[in-house]
Amino acid sequence: xxxxxxxxxEQIMNECKxxxxxxxDEHGSVLxxxxxxxxxxxxxxxxxxxxxxxxxxGHVPILDHIKTMKAGVKNGMLWLKVKNENDKEYQTAxxxxxxxxxx
Length: 103
Hints:
Layout: H1 2-17, E1 19-24, E2 30-35, E3 40-46, E4 49-54, E5 57-64, E6 66-74, E7 77-84, E8 89-95
Antiparallel strand pairs: 1-2, 2-3, 3-4, 4-5, 6-7, 7-8
């Protein structure tokens, strides 16, 4: 799981770097990035995985065997915490340099 977590964080971080805005839904369970061409990219829990969707379409699995995901944006930092099916928590934080929307 550790290697998959690192790869997933890199994918999410790359998407955020290419985004004009980065925010979460009101519960912090969905990460929403809007890129320069206006597309909305969402990272959300679906069954037991985090998936990526673009403009409400498609379905790209990002990380499997996940129970919960919580994200937030504060003071120019995105923080992300996930709990896997074995209740092990993984978390990270990285800067996002965009016109940030709170969530």
